[in-house]
Amino acid sequence: MSQDRRKDWDTYFMDIAFMVSTRSQCHRRHVGAVLVQGKKLLGTAYNGAPMGVPDCSEAGCMIVEDYELVTAAGKEEMVKKQRCIRTIHAEQNLLLFTDRIDREGSTVYVTDEPCWTCANMLANSGITEVVFHRAYPKDSLKVSVMMAQKGIQFRLLEDYQPPQETLMTIQN
Ligand SMILES: [Zn+2]
Ligand SMILES: [Zn+2]
């Protein structure tokens, strides 16, 4: 591969996050996250049930329904949404499997914008940057406000194409 076609670091690490996400067994969402310090990969994680416990492919997703306030065409509306709570989110698994010292000043690349709980935990984990690709509008506003308050760089990788083979059909 010629030098000018070489992947930039954002693409390189986000591609790895998408590769990692293919390990997920949840039919509803495949999320991957990687920890990067400098240009060194220090950890990888995906969303899944605790080790040794049946996962979504074996036991099915564990679905809960929530009402969510959605603004559509300037009108606020309560919409019922379903989500799977069987899994530990990728970002939380990443924190469980990495050391604090490796996280200080590090970057997390994650396929999806973190939910509120993950964002809160990331904010207290020592990391100083979060880069994501797919937006998660539900928590986006409060998460970006909190990241700004913490001084954590919070970047959407917009012009990015995930490797085709890492994308799954999501059941909604
Ligand atoms: Zn699931
Ligand atoms: Zn989360």
What does this protein structure show overall?
The protein has 172 residues and is of the alpha/beta class. The protein has a domain at 9-48 and 87-166: Cytidine Deaminase, domain 2 (3-Layer(aba) Sandwich). Helix content is 29%, strand content 28%. It has 6 helices and 7 strands, in the order αββαββααβαβαβ. The strands form 2 sheets. The protein has a 5-stranded mixed sheet with strand order 2-1-5-6-7, sandwiched between helices. The protein has a two-stranded antiparallel sheet with strand order 3-4. β3 and β4 (75-84) form a beta hairpin. α5 (116-123) packs parallel to α6 (137-150). The longest helix is centred in the last third of the chain and has 14 residues, at 137-150. One zinc ion (ZN) is lined by residues 26-28, 56, 61, 84, 86-87. The site of one zinc ion has 8 residues, from loops.
Shape: globular
Biggest sheet: strand arrangement:
2-1-5-6-7
**If classified by CATH, what would the architecture of the domain at 9-48 and 87-166 be?**
3-Layer(aba) Sandwich
- Poorly predicted ranges (pLDDT <50, ≥5 residues)? none
Q: Determine the fraction of residues in helical runs and give it as a percent range.
A: 25-40%
Bound molecules: zinc ion
Structural class: alpha/beta
